[in-house]
Amino acid sequence: MRFWAREKSSMSSSRKVVELFYDVVSPYSWLAFEVLCRYRNVWNIDLKFKPAFLPGVIYGSGNQPAVMNPSKLTYIVSDLTLLSEYFGVPMFRPSDLSEKDTLSAMRFVTALAEKEKEGDMLVERVSRELWKRKWRTHQDITQPASLTEAGLKAGLSANVVKEILSLSKSQPIKDKLKSVTQEALEYKVSAFNLHLCTLCLAHQKIFVVEKYNKMSLHIFPPFLQCFGFPFIVCQVNGKAKVFFGSDRFELMAYFMGNYNGLGIY
């Protein structure tokens, strides 16, 4: 399976930043993570990893965990089987689909991100190893010994792993993870293009205003906001657009000017 994209020349010099908010408990975040890593050079984007805490987002947005909805859970099992084949990211259904606490794991990744001053290669490697343990080999990711194994397999030295484990328990790292989670929640969107909001109309009070012969849709509280992961913020020359889920890559490409036929062959 190979991915391809052709970039529009008119946007080749644009500054494009993509922020990925994720938690390793989320398999859909893993799919988005791998695809964005593949497209990083093709799209010429500055990809920034934003490790956060999914339960904090779910609670803060008033959403409910997928495990609370049996119908959704059944669909997710079938959906992930097909998506893992489609994107070439092997993952297998855990025997227990309940959302285990990943607070220690995400603090570990956050501590590594704070220590890794230049680039994010180690954050990428460690995050991938944690996803593999959770969704491929079904190993623990909550205990220090498990985090140590993941760190060593990702290429960290034993001394660095020990340092990161210690740092992950510090108050500054706890505060950092909390602040990044809050940052995701604060990306509230009050206006959408009309054709992208069809599914929202039944749940929001709206009115349409015509201005300069263009239709704008104004949505009043409650605002649409981050309610789960992966949560992706794309910025082109200071203009931002948010996307939820691992199936929005064509829209991202279109927004960033990279879309002139995006597909798989």
UniProtKB/TrEMBL annotation:
Any GO BP: glutathione metabolic process
- Select a single GO molecular function from the record's annotations and give it: glutathione peroxidase activity
Q: Which keywords belong to this entry?
A: Transferase
| The name this protein goes by in its record | Glutathione S-transferase kappa 1
Family per similarity comment: Belongs to the GST superfamily. Kappa family.
- Domain DSBA-like thioredoxin, residue spans: 17-189
Task: Specify whether Phosphoprotein is a keyword of the entry.
Answer: no
Q: What is its EC number?
A: 2.5.1.18
| Broad EC category | transferase
